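ok here's Flagellar export chaperone FliS:
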Amino acid sequence: MLNKDYVVNRVATANGIQLVTLMYEGMAEHLQDARVAIVNQEENNLRFHIQKVRDILTELLATLEGTSDIASSLRTIYIYLNKLVTDALNKKDPSKIEDALKVIKPIEDAWQQLAETQSEDNHKPAVVAGLTYGKGQLRDYVVEETQWKKG
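and the structure:
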């Protein structure tokens, strides 16, 4: 299992692509832990890890936008993965977990490659905050990606 502080730091500094990559990493980790729970006949651990996988799948589904072929394909994959983990839970079948891992591994690898190709400038959001004075008032402003907003 990953160190919690390390994960918190990665999430806090990640861009959108890196967040998706982290979700896939978390899903793979929970699937592996679920497989161990099946083998060791640990019902509570199995339920916990399967629920974590379902939570990640729900978030991935919720963040899909549009009706493109890629979005439609990913929806189908996420629904299939949910079926696999449900079968693994109900039948206590580690082969269903293996099947799910085989499905997500190439997608996870693709997201990791995409994250690596992003330039260092894209890794961190450009946010600048400042205070200005105006007619007896102190105002704060925030700029995100060259867009000024009142704070």
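+1. The beta strands are 127-134, 137-144, 147-150.
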